[in-house]
Amino acid sequence: MKNYNEKLVTYLRSINKKVTLEREEILNAVIKVATYADLKHFNAKDIYNQIKLIKSPLSIATVYRTLPMFAEAGIIAEIAKRKGKMIYELIRKEKHHDHLICCSCGKVTEFYNAEIEALQKKISKELEFDIIEHSHSIKGICKDCKK
C-alpha cells in the first residue's frame, strides 16, 4: 500500500496538486476493493460503495473525477468502457495479461498467450517500432451470455 501512496504523492506534486483526505480515502477504497474484496476489475460505483461503508461524506462525482487521476499516476489502469462507465484494475507487479470483455454482461476475463506476445514483438521488430507499453482487449460475448 505504501508504494501506491508514494506514487500518488509523487504524481500530485508533479502537477502541483495537494494530497487530500478525499484522495487518500479513494485510494484506500481502491486498494481494499482490488485486494481484499478480490474484485480485480472495478468501476467508480464499486469504489463508492466501499467508501460508503466507512460513512464518508464523499460523493460519487468525486470518485468519478479522481479515478482518471489515479490512472494518470500509474496506480490503476483503464481496461474498457462498458455502458459509458470505465472499468479499471489496480496496477500490480504481476505477469502481463490481456482481457476478454463480454459486451453483454461486462465480465472481464484475464488471459496470457505467449504466441500473441511473440507475434506483437515480431511485428514491432519488422516495422522498427519500439513498444513502450501495450494493452490487448478482445470484446465479444461470454459463454454464459450465449446460453
Describe this structure in words.
- The protein is of the alpha+beta class.
- The protein has 2 domains: 2-90, Winged helix-like DNA-binding domain superfamily/Winged helix DNA-binding domain (Arc Repressor Mutant, subunit A); 98-146, Dna Ligase, domain 1 (2-Layer Sandwich).
- It is 47% helix and 19% strand.
- The chain contains 6 helices and 6 strands; from the N terminus they run H-H-E-H-H-E-E-E-E-H-E-H.
- It has helices at residues 2-14, 21-36, 44-53, 60-72, 114-126, 143-146, and strands at 41-42, 76-82, 85-90, 98-102, 108-111, 137-140.
- Strands 1-3-2 form a 3-stranded antiparallel sheet.
- Strand 2 and strand 3 (85-90) form a beta hairpin.
- Helix 2 (21-36) packs across helix 4.
- The longest helix is centred in the first third of the chain and has 16 residues, at 21-36.
- It is globular and about 50 Å long.
- The termini are far apart.
- The mean pLDDT is 89.
SSE inventory with pairings:
Layout: H1 2-14, H2 21-36, E1 41-42, H3 44-53, H4 60-72, E2 76-82, E3 85-90, E4 98-102, E5 108-111, H5 114-126, E6 137-140, H6 143-146
